[in-house]
Amino acid sequence: MLAYITRRLVYGLVTLLALSIIVFTLLQLSGGGPLDRLKLNPRMAPYIQALTEQWGLDQPLYKQYWTWLRNYVSPCTSTDPQGCTSSFGLKNAIPIIMLVLAIAATAFVVYSVKNHWRGALVLLVWFVAILFAFRNMSIAFNWGISFQGAGPVWDLVFSRVGATFRLGFTALLLALMVGIPLGIYQAIRQYSFFDQLGTTAAFVAFSTPIFVIALALQILLALKLEQWTGVKLFYVTGMNNPGYGEMSFLQQIADTLQHLTLPALSIALISLAGYSRFQRASMLDVLHSDYLRTAKAKGLPRRRIIVKHALRNALIPIVTLVSLDVAFIIGGAIITESIFGWPGIGRLYIVAIGTVDYPVVMSIVMIIGIGIVIMNIVADILYGVMDPRVRYD
């Protein structure tokens, strides 16, 4: 397992390198220079000169890419005007150490623990490792400063990652909590009225553009519902009210839910439709398998057959779907954040593309790519956890 994960990490690095080359080239070919807007102001000449020297904007394309790559992977060593805001010391090695320990512990659990606690132990290991790593992480990389004068790219991006993570994680959780049980119930009640209704609703949701869903939710559940009830249940813009810091704990939770529900639901509806359809098809395939017929012939209770024997194998395709759905959720968040005024990296990404602010664009694209690579590796690990037949020798 450890050798397999190491190989996947190497393949992931190669994939990320190819991704960076493609995106960097496309940005350069998009037309217009990243400093064109700044050149309209004569007083920005010293700032333009500093950026040109830092990023090698007067050099050939391959040298510009090498300059960007060298800066992107270089940790900051001091506080300086080039976008470094923290020092790189011994403490910064803790996240790397925790990642290595988590991989080793996962391999040990997969091969040593044989009971149903194995999956829970793997999730616990990674939860503790990620929590401990983030609590001790003070590293910053030299991603430079925004071409539009918005500040250091590292601070600019990571000041918004939390908001996007909150939105994406909530949407994913809603989709899983509703989509999987819905697909299971549709498979058990195949061709019933509920199954037909769920199938129709899933196709409608899956074929509707996300911006149409977002606007429809704003109109129906925010504006119209407030007109009908006289009570403002949901907000259509922002992440919190201005007086959020002065609210009590329960008021803060309520305020967060009022702002979070509609954007999260607009992303979750499409994923929910996909999860329910895949779960239904996978569950039907398992329910008609030979070993399920044997279990029924032995007289095992129907609930035990479904929960213990059918559900575990039927969830394996969903693991693949979730790992691939990360990219869709982030892409949906980019559109949704623009519609709902959500202060995440999606809005920052749209603005950065419009202004050809390629340090910001490249940083966000690479963060998304790293997340997808990690999720695919985690999905491969979960295959071995959920299906004992899967081995990575």
Description:
It is a single chain. The chain is mostly helical. The protein has a domain at 154-386: MetI-like (MetI-like fold), CATH 1.10.3720. Helices cover 72% and strands 0% of the residues. The chain is built from 14 helices and no strands. The chain has helices at residues 2-28, 45-55, 61-72, 94-112, 118-135, 153-188, 193-207, 210-229, 249-287, 290-297, 302-314, 316-340, 345-354, 358-386. Helix 6 (153-188) crosses helix 12 and helix 8 (210-229) packs across helix 9. The radius of gyration is 24 Å and the shape is globular.
- Poorly predicted runs of 5 or more residues: 85-91
Helices and strands, in order, run as HHHHHHHHHHHHHH
Radius of gyration: 24 Å
- If you consult CATH, what is the topology of the domain at 154-386? MetI-like fold
Classify the secondary structure makeup into a structural class: mainly alpha
Number of helices: 14
Helix content range:
over 70%
Number of strands: 0
CATH superfamily of the domain at 154-386: MetI-like
Give average pLDDT, whole number: 79
Described by strand count, sense and barrel closure, the largest sheet is:
none
Task: Write the topology of this structure.
Layout: H1 2-28, H2 45-55, H3 61-72, H4 94-112, H5 118-135, H6 153-188, H7 193-207, H8 210-229, H9 249-287, H10 290-297, H11 302-314, H12 316-340, H13 345-354, H14 358-386
